Amino acid sequence: MAKPKVHVYHPADETGESYLRWRAAGIVVETPEASYGEIVNRRERVELVFSPDTVAGVGSADRRTRITRRSLESAPALRMICKYSVGYDNVDIEAATALGILVVHSPTESNWGGVAEGTMAAMLAMLKKVREKDRHVKAGGWRDPALRGTYLGARQIDGYPGITVGIIGLGRIGSRLCDLLAPWRVRLIACDPYVDESAFVLANAQKVDLETLLREADIVTCHCNLTRETTGLIDAGALALMKPTAILINAARGPVVDIDALFEALEAGRIAGAALDVLPEEPPDPQTPLLGLGDKVLLSPHMVTHNIGTGLQMAVPWVEQAVLDALRGEAPRHVANAEAIPAWRDRFGGKSLL
User: Fold this and answer.
1) Is residue 354 part of a domain?
2) Whether 302 is catalytic
3) Is residue 333 domain-shared with residue 218, that is, in the same domain?
4) For residue 319, what pLDDT is reported?
5) Is residue 330 part of a domain?
6) Same domain? 66 vs 142
7) Does the annotation mark 223 as catalytic?
8) Residues 72 and 173 in one domain
9) Are 307 and 114 in contact (CB under 8 A)?
10) Which listed residue (7, 172, 302, 334) is catalytic?
11) Which of 83, 179, 205, 262 is least surrounded, with the fewest CB atoms within 10 Å of its CB?
12) Which of 282, 306, 330, 347 is catalytic?
């Protein structure tokens, strides 16, 4: 029997030890010559094609590498696409489900927790005008009324109600953000039609519909998966509902926000600002109009989860074990398209390649 082949199209194991253990288990490991940094920073889009004997594809959720139906069909014995990342939106998950191929992701706490912390940092930077104050003092200035920030929490002494933070998507990230905001005594509202009512109770967030959230929130922060439903979710119509003093944060996926509509809203002063860790085009074209809006926009290079000692490396043991499980004919943990498991078991259940 030929050895099973695992195609690592986005390497994340900095030590290479997981690849050595796979090889010791009888797996052929195929890795690219380019480094991870070179792969994620490229501008061209690539449709991945596997060699016919590939049984697993491994990488992250870089949207410039697209895994389409044709990609999945290029390897007839493909058992899984396995992600070092939480996200998996560069995979045609509907095609994978139809073909009985599992899409496995890595919702490590360092990843989703890092997004929540980074969102909190961006929120405070915008509301407290951290960048503006720093630049003003370094330029020789001192106190200026234009540098006054926003007080977040409710105050008893004068009845100030505090700001309202609206969270779109109350999964791991949205819930952790609620935890981080609890001591600040802000009003929390959230929209997520896919979680149980108890999630709102545990997060101390009022459940509202999207229109209400957009109208009432001083901060609108996006933490939803990228799907057909959420692509362009924040469009011109949604932005028109927001307060002129509101700030939009997107630490989910770039296409959730219509970037042209956002530019127009910011330029016209229909909303006050935006903090974006993600963009529809990554990295952005240097001529992207949004880049010229100064302090109205706070940008991050899609690495809000990258903290010292964390990053994708934290998911390496998960991915290593998931691949071994799948190649032994066992359904691994953290399957994103769980509805594909019955068909997958019919094809591969109990059929070990090791």
Assistant:
1) no
2) yes
3) no
4) 97
5) yes
6) no
7) no
8) no
9) yes
10) 302
11) 179
12) 282
